Amino acid sequence: MKIEEQNGFLIVSPNGKLDTITAPKFSEELLTIINPKLKGCIIDLSDISFLSSSGLQSLLIGAKEAQKNNIKYAVCGMNKMVKDVFLLSGFDRFINSFDTLEDTIKNL
Fold this sequence. Notes:
Elements lengths: L1 E5 L2 E5 L1 E4 L4 H11 L6 E5 L2 E5 L1 H16 L3 E5 L3 H9 L7 E3 L2 H7 L1
Parallel strand pairs: 2-4, 3-5, 4-6, 6-7
Antiparallel strand pairs: 1-2
Helix pairs in contact: 1-2
């Protein structure tokens, strides 16, 4: 997982699969790095090839932590399969999503 800061936004870029095996560590990491000093947290899913319900839960954990810290939160860069899972689960109703990282930074 790659973590960087750009213009006050924390950009977290996991890779591979976000599933039952990898999601708990991802959630744990999010909880340690999201803080109120940030403008926001962006999860760049460009390198995620598979998203399970556990992966969705980890995105929700990040969203709740961001809300608790009063910062903006969004996901971006989803491939078609990942986006379908995200949309079919209804997560688009409470987590902002954008096509590109640039769009995300511009619109948050």
